[in-house]
């Protein structure tokens, strides 16, 4: 069994039509949630029931602050601060070492820094997702699977098909 190394799962922000990594990032995480609407059924026998409604996601991240406000090839804490303060909708993507990509839009909703004596100054922030996040590999595979099954075919190796799609997207 192979495990994904977090070192290579990088958060990028789009600037001037190009995706740049957040500089000096030490961690990032992606979490999703769904709001639940309480329901009642005739036969729930006193147990709560509910249905999922609106979904949301956020991306949390941590990093180290550089002395430079702007650096070539990366997005700095200073740039994130300006984007957040301008309340601009941003495009983001997260890419890992094996070619998995997620992307979408969102707003920087939280941003902070922490300075301890004799330590590097760190920062943290959150992007609140705007709309549905996109996972191209899954979307392509699901469309392929639907087409094959609707045509009377069968999928014999999901792993093989997913690897093929990753190779196509990497080109």
Helix content: 10-25%
**Ends apart, CA distance between termini:** 26 Å
Beta-strand proportion: 35-45%
- Report the average pLDDT across residues: 86
Number of strands: 7
CATH architecture annotation of the largest domain: Irregular
Continuous helix count:
3
Overall spatial form: globular
Query: Which ranges are low-confidence, i.e. pLDDT below 50, for 5 or more consecutive residues?
Result: none
Structural class: alpha+beta
> What is the radius of gyration computed over CA atoms, rounded to a whole number of angstroms?
20 Å
CATH class of the largest domain: Few Secondary Structures
Outline the secondary-structure elements.
Layout: E1 10-15, E2 18-21, E3 25-39, E4 49-64, H1 77-85, E5 90-95, E6 101-114, E7 122-134, H2 136-150, H3 158-170
Antiparallel strand pairs: 1-2, 1-5, 3-4, 4-7, 5-6, 6-7
Helix pairs in contact: 2-3
State the main characteristics.
single chain, 171 residues, alpha+beta, Factor Xa Inhibitor, 2 domains, 7-stranded antiparallel beta sheet, 3 helices, 7 strands, 43% strand, globular
């Amino acid at each position: 069994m192979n495990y994904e190394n977090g070192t290579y799962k990088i958060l990028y922000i789009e600037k001037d039509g190009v995706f740049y990594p957040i500089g000096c990032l030490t961690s990032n995480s992606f979490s999703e949630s769904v709001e639940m609407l309480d329901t009642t059924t005739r036969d729930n026998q006193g147990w709560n029931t509910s249905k999922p409604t609106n979904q949301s996601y956020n991306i949390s991240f941590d990093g180290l602050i550089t002395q430079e406000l702007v650096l070539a090839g990366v997005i700095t804490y200073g740039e994130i601060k300006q984007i957040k303060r301008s309340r601009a909708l941003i495009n983001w993507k997260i890419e890992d070492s094996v070619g998995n990509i997620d992307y979408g839009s969102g707003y920087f909703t939280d941003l902070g820094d922490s300075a301890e004596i004799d330590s590097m100054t760190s920062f943290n922030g959150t992007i609140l997702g705007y709309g549905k996040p996109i996972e191209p590999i899954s979307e392509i595979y699901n469309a392929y699977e639907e087409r094959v099954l609707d045509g009377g075919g069968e999928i014999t190796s999901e792993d093989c098909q997913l690897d093929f799609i990753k190779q196509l997207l990497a080109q």
